[in-house]
Amino acid sequence: MDSHGPEQFLVLYDQRSVESPFIAGVRSGNTEEKDLSMDAMNPAMKHAPDEENEVQDLIGFRDPAQNRVIPVAQFPADIAFAVVDRLASVVREAHKSAEATTADDEGIVRAQTFEEGDVYMLASPFDGYFADRYLMDFYDVEERDICSRMHLHTGLRFVRMMTGPGTRIRVSSLSPFIVSDVRGVTPFSPDTFEDDLPGTPEGHQRTRYNLIVPENSWVDMQIPRGTSHQFNAIGPNAVIDSVHPEESIEVFRESMRNYKMMAQTIFLAEEKQGAETCAALPQ
Fold first, then answer.
1. Which domains does the chain have, with CATH numbers?
2. Which tens digit of pLDDT belongs to each residue from 202-217?
3. pLDDT digit string (tens) for 153-176?
4. How many CB atoms are closer than 10 A to CB 64?
5. How far is CA 262 from the centre of its chain?
6. b (16+ CB within 10 A) / e for 166-196
7. Non-local CB neighbours of 115 within 8 Å, separated by 6+ positions
8. How many CA atoms lie within 13 A of 80 on its CB side?
9. Is residue 22 within a helix (H) or strand (E), and if so which, with residue range?
10. The organism sits in which domain of life (predicted)?
11. pTM of the prediction?
12. Is residue 9 within 8 Å of residue 40, measured between CB atoms?
């Protein structure tokens, strides 16, 4: 193996708690000389690498960057529904599949769950390619009466949010969004507003910045590593197509033993709030 190549950072996670041979070698010192990139040398963010419900201090937290939002397109309702429903059905079929819900030869379980919805790993990392790709079928917050928590990830993310009829996505952060507006190209400007983040400890206040993905629309978002965000779908027809560009690197950097999507997340609240804290939108 070329010790200077990207395959240096490949980590194949194992839900059965069998540590990656490369990670095991690094821990024991039995690897060739390691030339880690500056990105890989960034300090770990997690207190407990494999904890799936790690909560860190909201009051002291400050975003290191801002999320960037790119409105992409709007569609007739029937076209938007056809696309969203078909992509969501891929996730639903995966969650009924014995193969997708069982660890494969590389230890990866493709069908997983997250606070915002059910997910399916469309494409997994491999030697020399440390990104992967997910589809997420959003939960309807009004149907479940639960909003997802504000959180951040141990690596950067790229998401494409897609809505169908009767559905909007409320996207929130502790920092203002930077919204792309290319004259003659950008199809619409999403509505934005601010409110107080619910569930903040008594005596403290944090501003929550909100952006609405309208019905029958596609909106992209670039999420820098460690930057707060929160997605909540209001309605039944919403999916996300998400790329995790540094998936293997971030688990190496955090010294995680297994591949677990929830373990790559840090929450900024202990408890989830009711639907009234995210479903109510300005008129």
1. 68-277 (2.60.120.10)
2. 999 999 999 999 999 9
3. 999 999 999 999 999 999 999 999
4. 12
5. 9
6. ebbbbbbbbbebebeeeeeeeeeebeeeeee
7. 148, 149, 151, 272
8. 24
9. helix 21-28
10. Bacteria
11. 0.85
12. yes
